[in-house]
Amino acid sequence: MTRSLKNPKKAKRKNKGSKKGDGSSSSTIPSAPAKVWQPGVDKLEDGEELQCDPSAYNYLHAFHIGWPCLSFDIVRDTLGLVRTEFPHTVYFMAGTQAEKASWNSIGIFKVSNISGKRRELVPKSETDDTEMDSDNSDSEDDSDDEDPDSSKSPILQLRKVSHEGCINRIRSMSQNPHICASWADTGYVQVWDFKSHLNALAELETQGVQGVASVFNQDPLAKYKHQDEGYALDWSPVDPGMLASGDCKNCIYLWKPTSAAAWNVDKMNTAHKASVEDLQWSPTEPNVFASCSVDGSIAIWDTRLGKSPVTSFKAHNADVNVISWNRLASCMLASGSDDGTFSIRDLRLLKDGDSVVAHFEYHKHPITSIEWSPHEASSLAVSSSDNQLTIWDLSLEKDEEEEAEFKAQTKEQVKAPEDLPPQLLFIHQGQKDLKELHWHTQIPGMIVSTAADGFNILMPSNIQTTLPSEGA
């Protein structure tokens, strides 16, 4: 387990970016091809630091809401199902990890005026005959970077609801996004209705209004105390109001709604030999969910068939910290382990014994979050305690001809290491002690992550903003 932030201090913003150590301007053109800096492999010399290359992103913004947040969720909104044009507005719910239990709160907040630019994946070729034209083009590109709205910073508007104890995990119900469940280190799972706060944020004007309103006191709709604290929590995407929670005492509880504001909580049979770390409902079956544990196993449950799992199998040689069920290819389940590895399984192959279709050992520290893209069935994002957020596309394979053609187009401006997996699309760094990430289901290509030093909103320039895959 690699979850809790012990005695966290107030978050501080960090500078991020490419390798620079001689004090020269970031606009200096290198005389030799730039080298990809590999975390955990390459070392920084004295006086060197990493700085962000803004051309790698269509958008990148860092912010914090006071105390660090171990968990958050992106709230589904009514601004459009597929939004590809800047500026963007995003709604969140997050739970704090304050120094004192009484200082904690759930933050309901809106970030608006998220402005950025789409960039070319391959730079335009230049020749001597068009040198003057390319100079003009460069100046035009520079001016394009300075978007008319870029002078207006993103606007954060926040409302807080008091919460006793640190929040280990928080989840918004997809069918009714104002309904939220929180897992506290006090052992309580609570269900809240934040409709009034979301409505108030939606009605607020965004013209320079920032800051925090007073902390609201509010009673939860429902609460249930486990024997111990926990982290596993998930709403069913198929059956509205169905909730599952798992704790550090190996126990899983099923929450069945009896009305819009009441639930019956029923304990399932013990299937794991250690703490239940994560839960994921099936994206297609209303009665099926998966659980993972510190004992290294994953269990598949069908509530129609009783209180015991349908099957259970050894998934990793260390704690299984997180799992993610692919909502576009429901036979695929991803899992991340404490040893830094993550695996992809085809659940149709479970009966044959070996269901692993992909296994990666790129990260060297515990996997803290993993999530499939809601817009591309073969893509997923992973965060690790090595302070890296990586994006992968499992459909990619090494192609010598395509690689040679790309190198010719880019004139080998970047020298990439030979041992990087071809499925690795992007590496994001700069956050300290990454804890959780989520793709935005309505804004293709947008990822949000939380860490000890705050939040990042990022849109890598090499992630295509396509429409949802067929059948999404």
TrEMBL record:
Residues 1-18 have a biased composition (Basic residues). One of its GO terms (biological process) is ribosome biogenesis. Residues 1-36, 120-155 are annotated as: Disordered. GO terms for cellular component: nucleolus. InterPro entries: Glutamate-rich_WD_repeat, Histone-bd_RBBP4-like_N, WD40/YVTN_repeat-like_dom_sf, WD40_repeat_dom_sf, WD40_rpt. Keywords: Repeat, WD repeat. Pfam families: CAF1C_H4-bd, WD40. Gene3D superfamilies: YVTN repeat-like/Quinoprotein amine dehydrogenase. It comes from the Eukaryota. SMART domains: WD40. Residues 48-114 form the Histone-binding protein RBBP4-like N-terminal domain. WD repeats lie at residues 269-311, 360-402. Residues 128-148 have a biased composition (Acidic residues). PANTHER family: GLUTAMATE-RICH WD REPEAT-CONTAINING PROTEIN 1 (PTHR45903). Belongs to the WD repeat RBAP46/RBAP48/MSI1 family. This is Histone-binding protein RBBP4-like N-terminal domain-containing protein.
